[in-house]
Amino acid sequence: MIPPVQRRLLLVFAHPDDESVFAAGLACMTVAEGGRVALCTATPGDKGKVGDPPVCPRERLGAVRQAEVMAACATLGIGTVRVLGYPDRGLAFAPTDTIRRQLVEIIRAARPHVVVTFDPNGSNLHPDHVAISRFTSDAVAAAGDGRWFPELGAAHAVGRLLWTLPVRPWDVMRRTDPALEPGADFVLDVSAFAERKMAALLAHRTQMQSLNRIFFSKPDVTRLLGVEMFRQAFGPPLVARPAADVFAEIVPTSEPRFHDPLSRTGSAAVRRS
Ligand SMILES: [Zn+2]
User: Fold this and answer.
1) pTM for this structure?
2) What's the 126 CA to ligand 1 centre distance in angstroms?
3) Closest CA to 158 of 58, 233, 239, 83
4) 88, part of any domain
5) Which CATH number belongs to the domain containing residue 42 in this structure?
6) What is the CA(129)–ligand 1 centre distance, in A?
7) What pLDDT, in 10s, does the model give residues 15-54?
8) What's the confidence (pLDDT) of residue 263?
């Protein structure tokens, strides 16, 4: 088991506010136990809503939303935030090689035990959500193989990749016991962090219309904010579903060294040491 103070979590999402909607409680819980959390957001969300009344002119929305995600992360204790700056609603067309390289660099720097991203259907079929899901899977695979981008540091094998649920978690909580929902492989009680999650959501001032619709207009908002759910894409087999600890059963391994950086031939020899 990885001691809580050594745990590292990386969230990879498409827009400012995705992190607070889907994984704020997990981030808070990880930080509260002494671990570290990093966030990569692929777009500044500049095609989103500007607020009603508008918080800013549309041409400033990208900059304002970047400031909002920084404020939300400060609230959640997320220590590292990177906004890649791909076009909002255009992420699917990001050059594959470029974004793979960027994400591999982030993964090898953060060296997360657990990575969280959207499920392959992007939770709500938003094309940017779908795109970041596949780019993240691609990069997680590449990051663990030292033949990719050896100049970006030692390969890092992620222990567990988590997706958001195939359906929206707040809908699951309305209609059934989350434990019975297929895909709810991890059901986390984050009620101790509901207030912090609420503060992070409120930092996304430009997005209050949709956040009101999802959370704040609901009489059971505190209950909705107190549970988060994730689906296991890959990782150690789960003894029981749903599980409650996303770091469970991950064995920290010595770094794989499929590439010998001293070799001038570039052969993929395995070094034994
Ligand atoms: Zn989004």
Assistant:
1) 0.92
2) 7
3) 233
4) yes
5) 3.40.50.10320
6) 6
7) 999 999 999 999 999 999 999 999 999 999 999 999 999 9
8) 42
- Angstrom CA distances, 245 to 25, 29, 160, 224, 260, stand at 13, 10, 12, 19, 35
Domain count, the chain: 1
Please, which residues bridge with residue 163 across strands? Answer: 117, 231
Residue 115 burial (CB count, 10 A): 29
User: Which parts of the chain register pLDDT below 70?
Assistant: 253-273
Compute the Cα dihedral for 196, 200, 202, 203 and give only its sign: positive
Residue 244, in any domain of the structure: no
CA of 46 from ligand 1 middle (Å) equals 11
Domain coverage including residue 212: 4-234
Res 186: pLDDT: 98
For position 174, what pLDDT does the model report? 85
Any domain includes 271: no
Identify the residue whose tokens are 């990879």: 12
Rounded distance from Cα 269 to ligand 1 centre (Å) = 41
139 alpha carbon – ligand 1 mean position (Å): 19
Q: Is 247 within the bounds of a domain?
A: no
